[in-house]
């Protein structure tokens, strides 16, 4: 039931997003991404939360952006991460970003590589949409699926 409601909401947002004239492009976006995280090293699921910031470099499509992200995965061990990187907007509102980061996993501070893809539905100054993230951290990797809720300014 919940899956059907979420799919109907995404379909509705897609229609609203594509049927209205495009608004002025904002240069900044900040948002929260709650989601479900699959921890590959121990085959467990956890809840994750990311705080993301984007600075859009241009107003032409495809837009390039610089991003920064702070994440917390709620597990028995500490799992905090920070990353920075670059991304590009493809196919209207589809964004793909890559970048390096650092992760505190348990007591270890590790280098990480992050890849993220998401689709943002614009509603006035708000952006909402699905996000998928993968982080490779050497002996550990995780994947996250969540919903981004952001504010453009």
What is the CATH class name?
A: Mainly Beta
CATH topology, by name, is Porin
Radius of gyration: 16 Å
Shape: elongated
Number of strands: 9
Terminus-to-terminus distance: 35 Å
Can you walk me through this structure?
The protein is mainly β. The protein has a single domain (2-152), classed as Porin (Beta Barrel), CATH 2.40.160.20. The protein contains one helix and nine strands, in the order αβββββββββ. It has an eight-stranded antiparallel β-barrel. A hairpin with a 3-residue loop joins β4 and β5. The model is unreliable at 19-24 (pLDDT under 50).
Summarize the helices and strands and which ones pair or pack.
Blueprint: H1 2-19, E1 28-39, E2 44-56, E3 64-74, E4 79-90, E5 94-105, E6 108-119, E7 121-123, E8 126-137, E9 140-152
Antiparallel strand pairs: 1-2, 1-9, 2-3, 3-4, 4-5, 5-6, 6-8, 7-8, 8-9
Keywords:
single chain; 1 helix; Porin; mainly beta; about 65% strand; 9 strands; eight-stranded antiparallel barrel; about 150 residues
Briefly characterize the structure:
It is built from one helix and nine strands. The chain has 153 residues and is mainly β. It starts with a helix and ends with a strand.
């Amino acid at each position: 039931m919940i899956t059907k409601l979420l799919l109907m909401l995404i379909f509705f947002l897609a229609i609203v997003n594509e049927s209205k004239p495009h608004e002025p492009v904002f240069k900044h976006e900040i948002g929260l991404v709650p989601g479900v995280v699959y921890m590959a090293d121990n085959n467990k699921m956890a809840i994750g939360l990311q705080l993301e910031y984007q600075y859009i470099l241009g107003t032409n499509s495809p837009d390039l952006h610089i991003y920064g992200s702070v994440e917390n995965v709620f597990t028995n061990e500490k799992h905090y991460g920070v990353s920075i990187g670059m991304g590009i907007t493809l196919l209207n509102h589809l964004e793909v970003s890559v970048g390096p980061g650092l992760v505190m996993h348990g007591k270890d501070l590790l280098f990480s590589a992050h890849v993220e893809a998401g689709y943002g539905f614009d509603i006035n100054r708000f952006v909402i949409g699905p996000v998928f993230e993968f982080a490779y951290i050497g002996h550990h990797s995780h994947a996250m699926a969540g919903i981004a809720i952001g504010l453009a300014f």
